Automatic annotation (TrEMBL):
Annotated protein name in UniProt: Nucleoside phosphatase family-domain-containing protein
Residues spanning the membrane: 540-558
Region span, Disordered: 648-674, 711-752
Active site residues of this protein: 146
Hydrolase as UniProt keyword: yes
GO BP, one annotated term: CTP metabolic process
Binding-site residues for ATP, renumbered to this chain: 183-187
Entry-linked Pfam families: GDA1_CD39 (PF01150)
Annotated keywords: ATP-binding, Hydrolase, Membrane, Nucleotide-binding, Transmembrane, Transmembrane helix
Amino acid sequence: MGKKWRYGVIFDAGSSGTRLHIYRWKDAEKARHKADEEDLRSLPELYTQKKWTKKVHPGIATFGDKAEEVGRDYLQPLVDHALDHIPKDKVEDTPIFLMATAGMRLLPQIQQSALTHEICSYFRRNTKFLLPDCDRQIQVIKGETEGLYGWIAANYLLGGFDHPEKHAHGKGHHTYGFLDMGGASAQIAFAPNATEAERHANDLKLLRLRTLDGAPSEYKVFTTTWLGFGVNRAREAYLDSLKEQYAHSNSDELPDPCLPRQLRTTLDGTPVQKPKSGEVTLIGTGKFDECLRQTYPLLGKDKPCPDSPCLINGQHAPAIDFDVNHFVGVSEYWHTTHGVFGGDDDDDDSYDFAMYQKRVKQFCSQDWDSIDSKIDHNKKHDAKNAQEACFKASWLINIIHEGIGIPRLGIDNLGINSSTKGSISTSSKKPKGFADAFQPVDKIEGVEVSWTLGPMILYAAGQIPPKSGDDRYPVGFGSNIVSAGGASTAIPPDFLFAGSDWRTTGRHGNQTIGGVHDDDDDDDWGDQAEDLLDKAKDRTTSGILVFLLIFFGFVYFFRKRDRRMRMYSRINNFFHGGKKGGGGGRFGGPPRKGGSIRGLSGLITSKLFGKNGGRSGVAYERVLEEGEANQFELGDVDSLSSFEENNNDYSDSSLDGGSSSSSSGRFGSGARSSSRLNFSASNNGFETMPTTGAAAAAALVDRSGLVVRTESRDRLALPGGNNLQMLNAGRRSRAGSPTRLKSPSMGPYQGD
């Protein structure tokens, strides 16, 4: 790829499986180049694609007693998938994270430690990804941290971090609240209004981001988690209460109002026709109102509340102002309010309590045979979802309205305009946001709302240099410790840094803070060309060739000679560099007789670049030695093989409860478009070295203060003759250059 892209890899290790996510964003300096004022006040813009995501089953916690097998048998397919989509020359500068959630939290501490240690060791032994800090990058995260990451991701996609004049909802401008529920746990995160934030300052998390102009952006967020309140764990608790309720009954059949009528299952949910003798089974009665009544006690609303107000299970929280805090719900909040209960107008994502409850009652009161006749039994999860839908619906209704207190749209009296259905706009031409107190979401602008986006936003923001080098307010989060003067402590003792460092380069980065290379525009052309070549594999051959002829002909007139050489190499690799044994180029299959792709590529390159791919009979060479390489940017030739895509299977189920896959898309809208900043161009041209006197001595010292030996000789290589030795004379390897030492952490990456 070109020089402007950074990549990040994160594994979401949930209770039912582990999903790989790949994100990319522009290098901070490249993004700031030519950025306007609005862009500079925005966060970095991140991108992802559906094919960059892959999931494996089961959950990583199943390796608790066999940690030595987790890498080879479980994680390696995900690693291979990441390597298929990240350019080879970017791997060593790409950070890798694995963050485990509820499933791993349930393991004993000794098994958690054994797994995280083995995972880190495996990554370091078998990959070249950037992994300087295992404790930071491979960990079991707390539920509160997961909720905060989700809050960051949701507000980033919805525009909650945008400036008030660009985005307004509720009473003035405010961020959105975030609700997440999986199989084992549930999370909530929101920024209280100013009054509650001051009253409950010590209950909040201090979050700092950094916009492209280097300015800090600070938020005070409340976040908490309820382990055991995910839908699967709640179902287990509900069954325990049923068994206790009928403990003195002589019958082996337990009536279950949360199952459709006449559905009989074992306690673990397996449907049965005729139970074995003495086997306890559940028999559905389809009484949804009774199901709501029996699931309500599971909220723990009767638990002591030492610090009022409280939400669920005696958990204290600042009072929620639903005029200001509008919530989005992901994972089970989406699947349980849609799925089998989705209507014909399911394109409307808004949540209407009265309409939802009506649909649930209609569904759950049916005979199971009637429901079963409409199920596609080729999809096992469809039957399971239909079987569990009534319980999940009752649990969510109780959590949303009785536990958290979100008003029932159209029923409860609320100050906001409850009669207006609000839905999240996925069009950049419309203002994003919604007016309702609660709305389930799955994707925003085609991108799945996943908490994994949160740590990547922090990492990208941490690579932006602060204004005037003032790093008193680093990117990350920690406890909101308020000083005597009422201000938050700059760096709390438990502050978790973003993991990136703007002050250091990547392993192969050429740092140029304060200036830009004179070929920035050429890099943009190269990246656009390569992206087109990447997409071309999914198109027809004839259309590709016509388009490439026009595009590369246009690019030819706007690129320097050395850039044309790089372009020629990429085209040549594209048409000639098929997989071994294929013989048919990138499009597969044998070459066509009489008019092969290979022959046409020769015609294209001959016309665009001249004979021999743009090489004339006379070659001009500049011979370099150690120390000179870092005085200017070297052109590079990237193999197009970095862009081969591997169409792996992609799962649409969530990690904890089932989550729809994200489609190919990019994050942000016009308000968060790619940002660039104009710097004065540094002198990256060839300089004439003084040959005598003090000037010559001074020229022997490079910018790092190291004495080097530099020669500059112009060679004229004539066709034919014995000039190979002369062309290589004086050339030395740059491997020993002191400027190429590997950095332990990743910073602003300014080039390949």
